[in-house]
């Protein structure tokens, strides 16, 4: 069969191949970006489901508006306001996970050959999705404070990209958080160079002790003109449940209108039932309590993972210390500090019954083969200690 040319731009990710091995019995996985199912507020979601199906079955089981279920748009607007972002319900659309928001941005903004700047490393599915639309992707270096803004500015000047994609808070895979000063500068650069900045923010609520700096969206009110150059993707996946598939997109009106048009041809609308469940859940005043448990649990797991890594692997591994999110980004230091080969290490680790994701696929180009990503979200503390012990064996 002759498939579309655009498929030549992408390949099945190395990570998917690795995930096939995760079914092995007894394996401890630090590989996925999955929230711990034990932390889902199933009781609250069941109550919300019952309520919407009892009191409002017609509309929630019917076709709905492409822009989203209006009570949820209002609920998200209020939720965002609580985080310092003023967004009217009409200023956002509901999407089928934030993954769809990224796809709609790709579809509406990227023509074959267009340049896009991302962090190096960044979320693999975004690289793949933008490549499907023919993007030429350029990586901007990051450090513990997020993307290096001087280098980013120079890359923008040089390449005049169609857009810049950033995960400013608790990045996937980097765990890094962009400093407040850098956030301000990015908004100013967006306005000055008239470059669309896409802020992907699924992890911002998952902080351990201290809230991160305000999102670019929240800060944009203080930088005249920046709202015209900013899109923001949000999601219930990491704070409530990824299976509900509910996210949202905030964007300038023309971009939002085009994204809505494309969504219409794609899935018509996000499930009304799961949207209504989310909307009702937001009115139940359970989210704060749910999030408090998630934050506390992930903070404890991150602490245990850091301690275990230091104890069991010592100088063989260097890693960041995230202040939230779900990931450690690490580097195998190897002999002479040259770095050892993480993909080989991943195979040996699977043999020992533990899995992680090698870092290379998260780079759009020039991958650092000594890097890897470890998720501390899914496994409990005992499994983390056991798994890191197995990693040490593999090493
Ligand atoms: N962006 C980032 C950075 C992610 O890590 C993920 C999920 N792992 C997504 C977007 C997509 O999430 P969802 O579609 O479930 O909202």
Automatic annotation (TrEMBL):
Gene3D superfamilies: Aspartate Aminotransferase, domain 1, Type I PLP-dependent aspartate aminotransferase-like (Major domain). Pfam families: Aminotran_1_2. One of its GO terms (molecular function) is transaminase activity. The keyword Transferase applies. One of its GO terms (biological process) is alpha-amino acid metabolic process. Residues 46-391 form the Aminotransferase class I/classII large domain. Keywords: Aminotransferase, Pyridoxal phosphate, Transferase. Belongs to the class-I pyridoxal-phosphate-dependent aminotransferase family. Homodimer. This is Aminotransferase, class I and II. It comes from Albidiferax ferrireducens (strain ATCC BAA-621 / DSM 15236 / T118) (Rhodoferax ferrireducens). The lineage of its organism: Bacteria, Pseudomonadati, Pseudomonadota, Betaproteobacteria, Burkholderiales.
């Amino acid at each position: 069969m002759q498939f579309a040319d655009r498929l030549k731009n992408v390949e099945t990710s190395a990570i998917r191949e690795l995930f096939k091995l995760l079914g092995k019995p007894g394996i401890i996985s630090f590989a996925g970006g999955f929230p711990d199912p034990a932390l889902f507020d199933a009781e609250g979601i069941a109550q919300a489901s019952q309520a919407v199906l009892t009191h409002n079955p017609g509309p929630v089981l019917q076709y709905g508006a492409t822009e989203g279920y209006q009570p949820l748009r209002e609920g998200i607007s209020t939720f965002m306001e609580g985080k310092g972002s003023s967004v009217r319900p009409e200023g956002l659309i509901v999407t089928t996970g934030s993954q769809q928001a990224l796809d709609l941005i790709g579809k509406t903004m990227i023509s074959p050959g267009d340049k896009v700047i991302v962090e190096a490393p960044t979320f693999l599915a975004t690289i793949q999705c933008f490549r499907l639309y023919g993007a030429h992707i350029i990586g901007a270096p990051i450090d513990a404070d997020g993307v290096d803004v001087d280098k980013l500015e120079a890359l923008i000047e040089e390449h005049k990209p169609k857009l810049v994609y950033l995960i400013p808070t608790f990045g996937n895979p980097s765990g890094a958080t962009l400093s407040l000063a850098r956030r301000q500068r990015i908004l100013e650069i967006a306005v000055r160079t008239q470059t669309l900045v896409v802020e992907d923010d699924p992890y911002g609520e998952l902080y351990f002790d201290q809230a991160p700096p305000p999102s670019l969206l929240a800060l944009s009110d203080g930088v005249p003109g920046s709202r015209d150059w900013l899109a923001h993707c949000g999601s219930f996946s990491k704070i409530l449940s990824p299976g509900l598939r509910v996210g949202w997109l905030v964007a300038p009106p023309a971009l939002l209108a085009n994204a809505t048009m494309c969504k219409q041809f794609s899935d018509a609308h996000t499930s009304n039932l799961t949207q209504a469940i989310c909307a009702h859940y937001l009115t139940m005043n359970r989210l704060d309590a749910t999030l408090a448990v998630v934050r506390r649990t992930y903070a404890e797991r991150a602490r245990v993972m850091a301690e275990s890594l230091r104890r069991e692997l010592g100088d063989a591994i260097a890693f960041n210390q995230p202040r939230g999110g779900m990931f450690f980004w690490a580097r195998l230091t190897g002999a002479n500090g040259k770095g050892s080969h993480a993909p080989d290490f991943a195979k040996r680790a699977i043999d020992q019954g533990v899995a992680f994701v090698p870092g290379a696929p998260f780079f759009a180009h020039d991958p650092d083969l000594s890097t890897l990503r470890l998720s501390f979200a899914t496994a409990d503390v005992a499994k983390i200690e056991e798994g890191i012990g197995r990693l040490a064996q593999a090493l």
